[in-house]
């Protein structure tokens, strides 16, 4: 879940909670009943937000794990390619060294 999606979800839940609270305040009920409804709405909003945060954390964790795994794979590929290139360089240097030894041997004769 992207950060923007989490922000939108939080804003929607907050708006729903505020809207429900305002609706309850304007309802023609006695004070005790109204307070009970407000408390019930607040508890539900809190639970909804807690559930959304838990879901967002799980999604973030999954995303982070996937990115970590992708990074490790790319790092492994890069190291492997570097190893092959290092082997190629060593072979080329060994060939050059052998050529130089042969030229040196010919010059020594």
Automatic annotation (TrEMBL):
<dbReference type="InterPro" id="IPR024623">
    <property type="entry name" value="YtxH"/>
</dbReference>
<protein>
    <submittedName>
        <fullName>YtxH domain-containing protein</fullName>
    </submittedName>
</protein>
<dbReference type="InterPro" id="IPR052928">
    <property type="entry name" value="Desiccation-related_membrane"/>
</dbReference>
<feature type="transmembrane region" description="Helical">
    <location>
        <begin position="6"/>
        <end position="27"/>
    </location>
</feature>
<keyword id="KW-0812">Transmembrane</keyword>
<keyword id="KW-1133">Transmembrane helix</keyword>
<dbReference type="Pfam" id="PF12732">
    <property type="entry name" value="YtxH"/>
</dbReference>
<keyword id="KW-0472">Membrane</keyword>
């Amino acid at each position: 879940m992207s950060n923007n999606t989490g922000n939108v979800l939080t804003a929607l839940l907050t708006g729903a909670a505020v809207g429900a609270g305002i609706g309850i305040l304007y309802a023609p009920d006695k004070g005790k009943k109204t307070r009970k409804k407000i408390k019930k709405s607040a508890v539900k909003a809190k639970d909804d937000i807690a559930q959304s945060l838990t879901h967002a954390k799980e999604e973030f964790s999954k995303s982070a794990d996937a990115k970590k795994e992708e990074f490790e794979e790319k790092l492994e590929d890069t190291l492997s390619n570097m190893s092959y290139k290092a082997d190629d360089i060593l072979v080329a240097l060994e060939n050059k060294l052998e050529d130089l030894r042969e030229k040196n041997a010919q010059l020594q004769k």
